[in-house]
Design goal:
Layout: E1 6-11, H1 15-26, E2 30-36, H2 47-50, E3 60-61, H3 64-69, E4 74-77, H4 84-92, E5 96-99, H5 110-124, E6 127-130, H6 138-147, E7 152-163, H7 171-174, H8 181-186, H9 194-208, E8 215-225, E9 229-231, E10 234-236, E11 241-252, E12 255-265, E13 271-272, E14 281-289, E15 292-296, H10 310-319, H11 322-327, E16 331-332, H12 335-338
Parallel strand pairs: 1-2, 1-4, 2-3, 4-5, 5-6, 6-16, 7-12
Antiparallel strand pairs: 7-14, 8-11, 8-13, 9-10, 11-12, 14-15
Helix pairs in contact: 1-10, 4-5, 6-9
Length: about 350
Amino acid sequence: MSAKSCKVVQWATGYVGKTAIRHFVSNPAYELVGVLVTNPKKVGKDAGNIAKIAPTGVIATDDPEQIIALDADCVHFAQLVQDIDMICRLLRSGKNVVTPLGPYYYHGRFSEELETIEAACRDGGTSFHGGGIHPGFAGDLLAITALRLMDRVEHIHLYDVLDHLANPSSYIEFMGFGRTPEDVLENPGRSPEAPLIFAQSMEMVAHTLGLEIDDVTSKLNLATATQDIAWSDGVVSQGTVAGQHYEWTGLSNGKPIITYHCFWKMGEENIEPNWDCGPSGFRILIEGNPPMDMTLRTIAKPGEPLRYAGLPWTAMACVNVIPTVCEAAPGIVTHFDLGVPKLHGLVRD
Ligand SMILES: NC(=O)c1ccc[n+]([C@@H]2O[C@H](COP(=O)([O-])OP(=O)(O)OC[C@H]3O[C@@H](n4cnc5c(N)ncnc54)[C@H](OP(=O)(O)O)[C@@H]3O)[C@@H](O)[C@H]2O)c1
């Protein structure tokens, strides 16, 4: 199939979905043929109106049956909550699926989901890929690529830093910023399930090294505000939670091999402890020979704070592999199956 004939559907129009719509419309490698929304206020609207671009002629529906009935090559499935049954229906209807919701790779409790998806792919003659920035890129593909330069590896660290003050969103409240430390320790913003999801990325790295992840340990350290921190929609009061450091370590043969450090904080100052974790973005540090330090960040516009590009990167990590996923043999398409995919239409006016 030529990339020009890639008929795509955008399933859900949050931040990631809207980014994808704008790309599908501006990249001649894709033809947007359908949009699924859950929000009743968006039903019947033109996709361009939803994504804040010129009209596209594609009208949003909240009826999955209309999407199932469409002639489309691929669905970019980017809704808030996972729905394996719906993904399987789409696959069985002859549409390939790429999604930032995963599953991403064979590990532990995701094996059953992947087997269910694999069966739907067989029935529909279609393929599935779970991707994104992390899981899906920074802590797996990027780390794996960097490992190829190493002579000896002791421990891989991935730092995922997000300054919520410079990038305000509903996550500030959802994650428990502004609550008491006792409350957040009792009800952490990230579920006990989260390390298991990221263990899929750890397993990709471990498999590259001929290892298995046997166990994942989890720690949470908190920082508090040394004075009130005002953000666009509220205030994180002095003494309440203003920083969260989740540390998940994958063990192989009982020894730590890979650690994901997630630092989420309300700004660069007025928090204690003020971790030396750098600005928003990703950093890979590999202990071994020779030791390696690599960063992945966007560039701040003059006079503006450094933005976190994790969400646009999440959209593009999936969208850019659509043509390769469509051409793949039916089944789950992991990073190992993708190889080095050709990228279509990125150089354009
Ligand atoms: N792998 C990664 O690196 C990575 C990174 C970031 C995000 N993600 C995942 O990518 C997905 C999209 O992220 P996002 O930032 O675009 O999220 P978002 O802005 O919150 O948007 C998600 C969209 O899902 C739909 N939705 C809302 N409530 C829903 C519900 N109860 N059931 C089903 N759908 C619902 C809505 O679509 P409509 O507005 O069209 O109705 C909403 O706009 C999320 O699942 C997120 O966890 C993955």
